[in-house]
Amino acid sequence: MNRASLKRSKILHMALMGTSDPSGEAEASHEKPFVLRALQIALVVSLYWVTSISMVFLNKYLLDSPSLRLDTPIFVTFYQCLVTALLCKGLSSLATCCPGTMDFPTLRLDLRVARSILPLSVVFIGMITFNNLCLKYVGVAFYNVGRSLTTVFNVLLSYLLLKQTTSFYALLACSIIIGGFWLGVDQEGAEGTLSWTGTLFGVLASLCVSLNAIYTKKVLPAVDGSIWRLTFYNNVNACVLFLPLLLLLGELPALYNFPQLGSAHFWGMMTLGGLFGFAIGYVTGLQIKFTSPLTHNVSGTAKACAQTVLAVLYYEETKSFLWWMSNMMVLGGSSAYTWARGWEMKKIQEEPRPKEEEKSNVEV
């Protein structure tokens, strides 16, 4: 169990730092035939795309559908966290009752651990709430541009909090992303579809995503490096913290007067949204495991492009050339940053080798 937890911790560490695990990839490629491995990768990437895109469209329906008319974004987010926490607990109980059926850690609620994770949970709440609020006020097509500044905040916070510098090429990529963001905002305004509220929530979501990565790295030791334990505690804490927000923002009376409160369709869609919220964490880790963190970033960029095109087609929108250019700048800048970070990490990994070879030659 400890080895499995350490392995998941290593995968998360690689994802946060933008590094790959060549030894692990080499081992996997030797163990399995190329065709089988290629098929596995294709299936995992497809699963990630389908889960992520479906979750965005489903959340848009729950948050801003004219047919549903449910104006309770905090409750939607709360319910998704509740479903995730219950799923984690259910899978943990199943693994305990039927050992060998699945690899899932034992989950017991420890208040001391919950308190130590509380700062991350606050950031986590901000991340998922601002993500949903951004999606509520902006269209799915603009959603990726609206919350595209995560990479920029990563660089800024890494310098301010961790004192880590960034290469010129990575900074150039960030400037392209910022340019694409501003062009996208300008074009949304020109088309009369800009929501400053949604854009602000998108910027705040980007900031929280970046902070979430930093705080996750800090609190992982509190849960023995287990991603699932962290997911469980985060969502339990979020459920508790959301309750006063539901009262303060007046969403409980709005929910009580909601005409479809007794509808099986409504609760089915809400539960499906929670299942997708749980699944996205799993398929993200799965994609990183079967490819690499850098490939995961590239896949995420390509998925964002496909999602934008699908949204424009589904909602029958007409966009200008400059609007599409803003999307290409954001996606291109994100890809360039991924490449620059990969190049930096490869350079860092290769630098000590000549010195070690020199030392071994002297000893011989």
UniProtKB/TrEMBL annotation:
Its main location: membrane. The chain crosses the membrane at residues 41-62, 74-92, 113-130, 142-161, 168-185, 197-215, 236-258, 264-285. The keyword Transcription regulation does not apply. The keyword Transmembrane helix applies. It holds the Pfam family TPT. One of its GO terms (molecular function) is GDP-fucose transmembrane transporter activity. It is found in: Membrane. It is a multi-pass membrane protein. Residues 40-337 form the Sugar phosphate transporter domain. GO terms for biological process: 'de novo' GDP-L-fucose biosynthetic process; GDP-fucose import into Golgi lumen; GDP-L-fucose salvage; negative regulation of Notch signaling pathway. Signal peptide: none annotated. One of its GO terms (cellular component) is Golgi membrane. Keywords: Membrane, Transmembrane, Transmembrane helix. InterPro entries: EmrE-like, Sugar_P_trans_dom, TPT_transporter. Belongs to the TPT transporter family. SLC35E subfamily. Putative transporter. This is GDP-fucose transporter 1 isoform X2. The lineage of its organism: Eukaryota, Metazoa, Chordata, Craniata, Vertebrata.
